[in-house]
Amino acid sequence: MAELVKKGGEVGLMGSGVPEEYGGAGLDKISTTVLTEKLSIYGGFAVTHGAHAGIGTLPIVTSARKRRRKILAEAGDGRMDWRLLPSEPQAGSDAQNSLTRAE
Prior knowledge:
Order of helices and strands: HHHH
Largest sheet: none
Shape: globular
Strand content: under 5%
C-alpha cells in the first residue's frame, strides 16, 4: 500500500484538498467529492486515501499554523504516513471530537 500512496502522491491524488499554495491540487469540495467517488471502486486504496486526505490532512489544512507548509507538502506528495491513535474515551475514532489541543 505504501507504494500506491507514493504513486498517488506523484500524480497528485493524495493532496487533492490541499491548497495549491501548500503544494496540493487545490480542488474544491465538489471536485474532491467526485475524485473520492471515482476512487471508491478501488477498495483498500480508497480507504487509505480517505484516511490520508480526511483524517490526516484535513485537520492540518483547517487548523495547523506554524508547520502547515512542510506538513502539507509531505502529505500532498505521499511522503507523510499518517497514523491515528485515538486516546480520549469520549472521542473514540472521531478525531475531531478530541478535547486535547496542541498549541
